[in-house]
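JOB MANIFEST
job_type = single_chain_structure
chain_count = 1
residues = 596
[input]
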Amino acid sequence: MDSYSLLYSSSHRTRLLAGFQHLRSEGNMCDVVLEVGGVSYPCHRALLASSSEYFWALFGETTAERLAGSISLPALTPEGLDAILDFLYSGWLRISSPTLPVVLEAARYLQVETAVSICERFLTDGLNTDNCCCYANLAEHHALSDALEAANQTIAMEMGTLLKESRNDLLGLNIQSLMVVLDADEIPGVKEVELIKLALDWLDENGPLPLLKSNLLLSHLRFGLVAPSDLKDLSHAHRAMATPLIRSQLTRALEYHRLGSAQPIRQSKQSTLRGSPNRVLLVGGGSSPDWPEQQMLSFDPRSRKFSPLSSSLPLRLRNHCVCSVGGFLFVIGGKEVKEGDENGKKCVTVATSKQVWRYDPRFDHWETMESMLERREKFTCCVVDDVIYAIGGRHARPDGNTHTSIASVEFYDMATGAWRRGATMPHPLYGHASAVLDNGVYVSGGRSANQGGSYPGDNPDNHSREVLFWDLKGRVWEKRASMSIGRFSHRMATAQGYIYALLGMYEPFCDIEQYDSESDHWTRLRPLLTGSFNYGVVSMPSGNLLVFGGRRWSDGQEVIVKSVLEYDTKTDRWREICQLPRPLTGTECTLLPLPD
């Protein structure tokens, strides 16, 4: 067989289309006329059939239109057909926001799928507050799934603006999009009662709907996010709210509000806040280690911006613990710092606390819960299966000048709202750290007693390297491999199936360590950028660790820092990602869904 070469010319296709376009503009060799709205378009039957499934079927061998000289397309507009014909003859689609509906209608009707894809991309790329509702209706009508998803997401994120400026657009939204939006986990800046009012107004505007459809629509609302006083009035607000299904949901929401301490463990979608789940909440601390502030800061990892919460801590605390369970924040124990008056002079008093405060971000509300069995500061807490464990710590003796370290452990039973005793540690500890891995609790470092040094942490030789483990099933703590460095007032965090031990007070080096529970082995990793302590730390869902503020030594003096550091556990690298609004030390961190 003789060999040969096969060569391709990319310019031939362009010249071919240009030739057909020239013939059409001159009216030469056209063998069919398309008529729309009184306008005639001479075309070439072969090019139409090769470019459109519609025309391929229309000009088939058994159709009446096979040899017809003119064909009427009453379903289309001249503007839409003209744009599609230009596309078929040139490959260029002329489209704008005002012409998008008619061009998309023509492309879909004539089954020119390439033009439909271009319209969908134009729709998705051009989404904004002004057109998102219109584009959602277009995407739903023409079954453009990707564009519809993008439009629905834009509506949810811009709902606050739309309710104020474009309410009529929302009332004209298709029911599928409205249900998706009402099911969204993030709708920034909008209270649930506003969404309920929107849904009821939409029913008035688009109703009456069959009972099944109205129930389905209203079932996407989260009645657990509505205050009890408002819930009682909702059943009479609209006839659609009086159906048995919706009344039962209102009843369940009222029952949820009456659960008290059990609310965090009885969460459902109807009581879950519509907000970013990865907000970091910084609780307590201040620009001075001796005078903690009451303001709380929220950190958005996406924008790397801080914002103060409207609510503040009910009291000034240091050496406290925080955790989140079921969308609630718990602030536990610590030293309460108060301004007092002694012999006519202002003074500061400090007392170890056993109080427990719970913060509900849904209603910006603080509530005192059952106090711990013992007063604790410099202790550690962790959460396992929605149970809070408070471990060790210390409290002031009656003389107020010395402290007693404790080995006791207690846990908070949310079903009954009571603290109960857990397995006591082998010996008292304070200034230790804890982490949870595989439903077990690990405790490391700390000190057993106030020995040596003017400050209990200033002698690194007295810092413990010991690691204890409690699997929660038994009543005993077991020893695990010790850290390579003795640590006090340090931090531990769990990420990607490992435990990380970070710096404590007055450590001579900046090394951190990683613990592998399978091999029971610690490995030293890349040191922290600068030696610091008394910072806040949180483990992100991505597996990275964030470190907020703290104190470090500079020229023989303690300096409070503003830096926010990120540790990438996959690459063992540190970097500074942003800075705090002000220097901050002694803060405690947790992840908590917050309203935007």
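[summary]
The first helix runs from residue 10 to 26.
The chain has 15 helices and 34 strands.
exit_status = 0
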